[in-house]
Amino acid sequence: MTAPVIAVDGPTASGKGTVAEKLARALGWTYLDSGVLYRLCALQARHDGVDLADEAGLAAIARALRVRFPHGRIELAGRDVSEAVRDESVGNAASRLAVLPSVRQALLALQRGFRRPPGLVADGRDMGTVVFPDAELKVFLTASVESRAARRYKQLIEKGFSAKLPDLLRDLQQRDARDANRAVAPLRPAEDAIVIDSTHLDVDATVERVMDAYRERRRRAC
Ligand code: DC
């Protein structure tokens, strides 16, 4: 039997990472933040001097990605990049290379490798539509762009990064447009996803809603 998957997709700063991680912890399942893999490709490309227009070069990076997650840290080719990977410029570069079909293809097997018993909670843009189309539960988590920009601003300031709210809002709008309008695996809810708007919900209430939906699925499956 394959391990169950809960797919949590949504736009940048929708809170999907926090929600998915809490869900995984509550269930005792593995957690995959698939955006990190795209961000790591962007970091490695910057390190190697590979241009974001060089699809073959970027796909080679994606295929050879040497990543480890020791004790909640993120290691790329032996370097601790836990902080660097969260930089906004890295997120923007990740969004640009994520439009490239051969990069996405190269990361498929790596992402599917995280599926192991007792289960996996995976967050990203195409977890329910492409990577785990047979996920037991698919959630599309969204929130207004203004509230997402405000949340991202708070996160960055708390971590000691400098940030300007109008710039963040503009970047989020650009990333939303790029992620939603690309030809391959665009950001959109899977047909069988439940859509949760978290503009007026806090993290715990959102997690509870997903848990309820999962319990309901299980109940109906029995
Ligand atoms: O979730 P994030 O902000 O860390 O993701 C960074 C970028 O990576 C995002 O703008 C688009 C891309 N991405 C993707 O295309 N597919 C995924 N499953 C996850 C991220």
Protein architecture, described:
It is a single chain. This protein has a single domain, classed as P-loop containing nucleotide triphosphate hydrolases (Rossmann fold, 3-Layer(aba) Sandwich). It is built from 9 helices and 8 strands. It has helices at 16-27, 34-48, 55-63, 88-97, 101-112, 127-131, 145-158, 165-181, 203-221, and strands at residues 5-9, 30-33, 67-68, 75-76, 79-80, 120-124, 137-142, 194-197. It has a 5-stranded parallel sheet with strand order 2-6-1-7-8. It has a 3-stranded antiparallel sheet with strand order 3-4-5, covered by helices on one side. The radius of gyration is 17 Å and the shape is globular. Bound molecules: 2'-deoxycytidine-5'-monophosphate.
SSE map:
Blueprint: E1 5-9, H1 16-27, E2 30-33, H2 34-48, H3 55-63, E3 67-68, E4 75-76, E5 79-80, H4 88-97, H5 101-112, E6 120-124, H6 127-131, E7 137-142, H7 145-158, H8 165-181, E8 194-197, H9 203-221
Parallel strand pairs: 1-6, 1-7, 2-6, 7-8
Antiparallel strand pairs: 3-4, 4-5
The structure holds 2'-deoxycytidine-5'-monophosphate (DC).
The molecules bound to the chains, other than polymers, are:
2'-deoxycytidine-5'-monophosphate
User: What CATH architecture do you see?
Assistant: 3-Layer(aba) Sandwich
Helix content: 40-55%
CATH class annotation: Alpha Beta
* Total strand segments: 8
Poorly predicted regions: none
Q: What fraction strand?
A: 5-15%
Number of continuous helical runs: 9
Count structural domains.
1
Choose one word for the global shape: globular
